[in-house]
Amino acid sequence: MQLAEFLTALNTNRKIVITTRDNTIMIDLPSVADGIALWREREDLLKRAASELHQELSATGMRLLVRVKGRVVARLGAGAESGLLEKLLNYGPIDVNPYEVARLLLGIEKTL
């Protein structure tokens, strides 16, 4: 799956903002609820695409960040490594940040 196909597949009725900066593609979601709904709607596609996209992005030195309310909750590509959570849930090479996901779910503001 090409990156363009993946980004096109994210085209839903949800408010998703896709931007780029240098070698980083950022997918911004307005809320955890939108992220969960998107995952449920496109889970098969996203799981299937994850490994291939990770390899394509890594080979070109690019990375893809998924952000909710500006917080990075997942990444693919250069520098991304799947952890225990991703392996248990069979997410492939998606590097999920469980701490940011938990903070968002619990409504905890980021502190310095």
Low-confidence stretches: none
Basic shape: globular
Query: What can be said about the biggest beta sheet?
Result: 5 strands, mixed
H/E element sequence: HEEHEEHEH
Oligomer: single chain
Average pLDDT number: 80
Strand order of the largest sheet: 1-2-3-4-5
- Helix share bin: 40-55%
Provide a count of the helices: 4
Give me the secondary-structure category.
alpha+beta
3D architecture notes:
The chain is an alpha+beta fold. It has one domain. Helix content is 44%, strand content 23%. The chain has helices spanning 3-9, 32-59, 84-88, 98-106; strands at residues 17-21, 24-29, 63-68, 71-77, 95-96. A five-stranded mixed sheet has the order 1-2-3-4-5. The protein is globular, with a radius of gyration of 13 Å. The N and C termini lie far apart (39 Å). The model has no long low-confidence stretch (mean pLDDT 80).
SSE blueprint and pairings:
Elements: H1 3-9, E1 17-21, E2 24-29, H2 32-59, E3 63-68, E4 71-77, H3 84-88, E5 95-96, H4 98-106
Parallel strand pairs: 2-3
Antiparallel strand pairs: 1-2, 3-4, 4-5
Please summarize what this structure is.
The protein is α+β, with helices and mostly antiparallel strands and 112 residues long. It has helices at 3-9, 32-59, 84-88, 98-106; strands at 17-21, 24-29, 63-68, 71-77, 95-96.
Distinctive features:
112 residues; alpha+beta; five-stranded mixed β-sheet; 23% strand
